[in-house]
Structures are given as C-alpha cells and as structure tokens.
C-alpha cells in the first residue's frame, strides 16, 4: 500500500496541473495510493506513522530536497520503503539516486528497484547527502587523533554521496562516510580554495574551540549544533532507485 506525501508548498495553484498528471500516471501504472497533503494543521510524522499503522508499506515524498530531508528523518526508523518524486529539475539527491523529475519519476516507482543505503547520523538527526560547517574554529576527533583546520576560513563537508567533484569515492552503500576539510585563503583576486583533506570514517566527533556552539547544516535543511557525534548507519534506508543511479 502506497502513501503519497505532498509537501505544503504544492498547495500553490501553479502545481495543480503537475499533480494531476502525477496522479493519472500512478493510476495507469497500478500504484495508486492514499494522498496526504501537508498543511499547518497536518503533521508529517503523524500522517506517516498513522499510515504505517494502517498498513502502508511504501511512503512516497513529493516535493524538493527539503521535503526529502524531513521525510527521511521520519521513515528511517520505520519498516517502510521510501520513494521520491521531485517536482524540480535540479534535485541533486534525486539525480544520484537515478530518479528523473516530475511525472517520469512515477515509472521509477513502478519498477521498484529497491536498495538499502547508508545514512549519516549527527546527534539525533539523519542525513542522506551532506552535512556542512563553514568558517568555524573547530576540532575533529578522528580515530585516535585530533584534527584542526589550518584556517578559520574553511569548509568542512561530511559526505554520504559523491558530490561537488571533491569526494568522488563517496558511496551510500559502502558503510563509510567521508569528511572533506577545505581551507579557504584570501588573495588579491578573492577567496581561493586549497585542495581538501579527505578523511574516511565511521564515527567522528566535532567540537568548537570557542565558547559559542557551531552550526552544522544537514542536507541544506536541518541545523544542529556542536558538540556533535557523527556516525554512519549502514543500510538504514530502503529506497526506490533508478537504473541510472550513480552507485551499485
């Protein structure tokens, strides 16, 4: 049984035609299910958990990357399969999973190629793609070492997926995450990124050297604070992927 979660921004009339086409396509493909439209009065977690109690086995998130980040933090601890229908053409998570945008994603759902992928976990939040810290004075506990960026102008990115052409070996089914520390130095021509240091890990800790906590942005959506423990949770999420995905 399918549960289709429509994010609240899809209540805008400009999405009406697209949603009608999606609903028609899933009906034609025989994967029609219950529709839940989010609003200020409807809580996503409650809708999903109630659906699972009623026998839902596949939750389909319709929206953008922020939608997916929110849904993943709910379904990761439930025994369900996740499907995605991106309504934008440039969704990086969907591209890595081999899911085309809009109506074409319905055919991927119907094909039901299911993979169990790793998730990152930072304190109490899961992330599927990246977690980022910028321009912070932090220390990273890595194995038996403490690593500190060379300058306070830096970017620290924790990858589950390959992204940005930096951590090309990141793979969501290998049981490992990568921390990439990239110092940024100012020059007469502006800011210049120096080649990053890549640290593969299954568990690290990040803390601030200053009194103030440092913000960590996960999947461009959820903000957490230091001190933080980051771990990989292997094969945590069952997700429907396409044949053009960027991993095996």
Total beta-strand segments: 17
Second CATH tier, the architecture of the largest domain: Sandwich
Mean pLDDT: 90
Inertia-based shape: elongated
Proportion of residues in β-strands: 35-45%
Task: Write down the domain tally.
Answer: 2
From the N-terminal CA to the C-terminal CA, the straight-line distance is 27 Å
For this structure, what is the CATH class of the largest domain? Mainly Beta
| Topology order in helix (H) and strand (E) letters | EHEHEHEHHEEEEEEEEEEEEE
Structural class: alpha+beta
Describe the structure in your own words.
The two termini are 27 Å apart. The radius of gyration is 19 Å and the shape is elongated. The chain has 248 residues and is of the alpha+beta class. The chain has 2 domains: 110 residues, Probable inorganic polyphosphate/atp-NAD kinase, domain 1 (Rossmann fold, 3-Layer(aba) Sandwich); 112 residues, Tumour Suppressor Smad4 (Sandwich). The strands form 2 sheets. Strands 1, 2, 3, 4, 5, 6, 8, 9, 14 and 17 form a 10-stranded mixed sheet that branches. Strands 7, 10, 11, 12, 13, 15 and 16 form a 7-stranded antiparallel sheet that branches. Helix content is 19%, strand content 41%. The longest helix is centred in the N-terminal third of the chain and has 13 residues. Helix 2 packs across helix 3.
Observed structural traits:
single chain; 248 residues; alpha+beta; Rossmann fold; Tumour Suppressor Smad4; 2 domains; ten-stranded mixed β-sheet; seven-stranded antiparallel β-sheet; 41% strand; elongated
Write the layout of secondary structure elements.
Layout: E1 2-6, H1 16-28, E2 34-37, H2 44-53, E3 58-63, H3 65-75, E4 81-86, H4 92-97, H5 105-111, E5 113-122, E6 125-127, E7 130-134, E8 138-142, E9 145-147, E10 154-159, E11 177-187, E12 190-193, E13 197-201, E14 203-208, E15 215-218, E16 222-225, E17 228-241
Parallel strand pairs: 1-2, 1-3, 3-4, 4-17
Antiparallel strand pairs: 5-6, 5-17, 7-10, 7-15, 8-9, 8-14, 10-11, 11-12, 11-13, 14-17, 15-16
Helix pairs in contact: 2-3
